[in-house]
Amino acid sequence: MVNKLFWQDPYLDHCDAIVTSVSGNNITVDQTVAYAFSGGQESDMGTIGGFNIISATKRGLDIIYTLENHSLKEDDHVEIKIDMKNRHRLMRLHSCGDICLQIILKNHPELNGKRVGANVSPSKARIDFNMDYNISSLFPEIETELNKIINQKLPLVTAFEDDEKQIRYWEIAGYPKTRCGGTHVKNTAEIGKIRLKRKNIGGGKERIEMIIE
Ligand SMILES: [Zn+2]
Q1: What's the pTM?
Q2: Domain 3-82 class in CATH
Q3: 4 has pLDDT over 90
């Protein structure tokens, strides 16, 4: 099973690794800095042994990397590198999206269980709700609280809730522990300037988008 260094240090942009299995374009490694799509957070852009990562997929507690035309063999020693600029945007937007969700649920408990989708890309985060009114009516209160959290420069703690099952959480002062296996910024100040945008996606669904300025 792969050792996920992106949880120990989400700011690590490279590591050495050993290839533990090869099956066509798919490989596994003993440790990694490259995140695999889960919890709505997109995979990292990067290379393993100089070969581009086309996709990274979670399989149980392991990660399968699909590489472009590689020539790697089992037991090869490789370097894994990720695009840290891209990752840091994912971290900022993941933390921002999760905090916005907590603000919304705290102020509007009736929306609990109404979340029907979420995604974090390097350009924006989004959350979809089943709701029958315009979500932009909530923006002033979300912006006020979000900016307060950012300006307070709060430490954001991530850790294991369950070591064996690899269940993670994040927490900031004033909010409950939130289960999440994503990568997060260390301090809310890093989130920086964020713009909220509404999208009416139809079918009684409302989308809030968080965009890095
Ligand atoms: Zn999350």
Answers
A1: 0.95
A2: mainly beta
A3: yes
